[in-house]
Design brief:
By secondary structure, the chain is of the alpha/beta class. It folds into 2 domains: 40-69 and 368-471, Alpha-Beta Complex (Aspartate Aminotransferase, domain 1), CATH 3.90.1150; 82-364, Aspartate Aminotransferase, domain 2 (3-Layer(aba) Sandwich). 38% of the residues lie in helices and 16% in strands. It has 15 helices and 17 strands. Helix 4 (75-85) runs antiparallel to helix 12. The longest helix has 21 residues, at 3-23.
Length: 473
């Protein structure tokens, strides 16, 4: 490269950095800190790697915020979007239909049957099968749709008093007002409290920090006790219980004790409360099953999906429910039973085409079947890392991993969040060629499902070295 080209590249980088700092407001980012640093500007991505503007490659340890399940620049998804683009980029679903959204709905319904058939209700309750697909744009809207759907369902059933929602402490369901109302991460949500509607919060099954030192069923029952109290005392007011099944993701990658989710479903059935499963983060193979609910044979009344549905290519979300819920919205035009909700890009053909390609890849490449050795490797490496004096817990489910950093291991004393210990480790990892983004003191590991064993092992080496570098040992 000539000196002229080097100067040109340097000028290009400085120019982009200046524009970014002057105009781009980054999400979940303290911009005062951001403006004092050098932005990592990504120009290219391939497989499980991303490349910055200076030409350096990094392992994408969080799948570009958990969306890129099958690797960057997957040729089959590229081809599907290109083929659709040659026909139509977008047409509305308000008063029209389009091929891609119809085909995807059919494929998703078939996937629901395949995934949940072993756990479905007996034939006389076949209307509980997940068959009805409502499209939106992202995880927040998928949950928002589910909340409004549950609320309106009970009104149509003549139970107008059922307008209350129950959710979990440490839960995160997105950033729209309804989704924040059922959220439970105070650092994110407390500032918006005056804008939110009232909800009931049940204890999170956060075994590491519950203080009881118990394992399930004792620990799980301790968590479900307050939930059952809500159902007993206020059941006729409750529209639905909302949770992330098996793993509370943005709340700190909190992994449920065995049996907790199943017990929750039993309580919902017992007291006639709808169950909304937010699988935005856990769906599409993340936990080692196609959907996290499969681990404990739970079929929710409403299922929310996004993120991995398009492999990280296009914004798309779906809220899936059963014929029982759907049927409550059917009636004469004058009855106003219509579900008055929608988005400009609902059922976007480009996004639906990407999702169709993703489902084909999952099937043709047997993605779920191929996860077992990667899951085992991650567990083994986390066990090694868990021996470090500053690691309180290192645990995973599927390819969702957490490493909780603590100041005092015997007592589990957390570091003050303002010390940014997670970020100190993440910055060391970046120097080694790994991009990860912590949640406070919790190091989040969410590599693409397509990552090779070699690259996964390499990633864990970098994580381990970064922790040792930050704390010694």
């Amino acid at each position: 490269m000539s000196s002229g080209n080097k100067i040109s590249l340097g000028g290009r980088i400085k120019g982009l950095e200046a524009i970014d700092k002057a105009h781009v407001w980054h999400p979940f980012t303290q911009m005062k800190d951001w403006a004092q640093g050098d932005p990592l500007i990504i120009t290219e991505a391939r497989d499980c790697f991303i490349k910055d503007i200076r030409g350096r490659w990094y392992l994408d340890g969080v799948s570009s915020l958990w969306v890129n399940t099958l690797g960057h620049r997957k040729k089959e998804i590229n081809a599907a979007i290109t083929a659709q683009l040659a026909k139509a980029a977008h047409t509305t679903l308000l008063g029209l239909a389009n091929e891609a959204s119809i085909e995807l709905a059919g494929r998703l319904a078939a996937l629901m049957e395949k995934s949940f058939a072993p756990f479905s209700a007996p034939p006389d309750k076949k209307n509980k099968k997940l068959t009805r697909i409502f499209y939106s744009d992202n995880g927040s809207t998928a949950v928002e749709v589910g909340l409004k759907m549950a609320f309106q369902y009970w009104r149509h059933k003549g139970e107008r008093g059922r307008s209350l929602f129950v959710s979990l402490e440490n839960g995160y369901h997105g950033d729209t007002i309804g989704a924040v109302s059922v959220g439970g991460v105070e650092m994110f949500h407390d500032v918006f409290r005056p804008l939110l509607f009232d909800t009931l919060k049940a204890p999170s099954p956060y075994c590491y920090r519950c203080g009881l030192g118990l394992e399930y069923p004792a620990c799980g029952l301790a968590c479900t006790g307050p939930l059952e109290d809500f159902f007993k005392t206020r059941g006729q007011e409750i529209a639905a219980f909302v949770l992330e099944p098996m793993v509370q993701a943005a709340g700190g990658m909190i992994i449920f004790p065995d049996g907790y989710l199943k017990k929750v479903k039993e309580l919902c059935e017992k007291y006639g409360v709808l169950l909304i499963a937010d699988e935005v983060a856990t769906g599409f193979g993340r936990t080692g099953r196609m959907f996290a609910c499969e681990h404990e044979g739970v079929v929710p009344d409403i299922l929310c999906l996004s993120k991995g549905i398009t492999g990280g290519y296009m914004p798309l979300a779906v809220t899936i429910t059963n014929d029982e819920v759907y049927g409550a919205f059917l009636g004469g035009y004058e009855e106003l039973k219509t579900f008055f909700h929608g988005h400009s890009y609902t059922g976007n053909p480009l996004a639906c085409s990407a999702a169709l390609a993703v489902l084909e890849i999952f099937e043709n490449e047997k993605v779920i079947d191929g996860l077992s050795p990667k899951i085992t490797l991650l567990q083994e490496r986390l066990k090694e890392i868990g021996a470090h004096a500053r690691v309180g817990q290192a645990k995973s489910l599927g390819l969702m991993g957490r490493i909780e950093l603590v100041e005092d291991k015997p007592h589990g004393t957390p570091y003050p969040w303002e010390e940014k210990m997670g970020w100190k480790v993440a910055l060391r990892a970046l120097e080694k060629g790994l991009f990860i983004r912590p949640l406070g003191n919790v190091m989040v590991l969410m590599p693409p499902l397509s990552i090779s064993l070699e690259n996964l092992d390499r990633m864990m080496d970098m994580v381990h070295c970064s922790i040792c570098g930050a704390f010694g040992g």
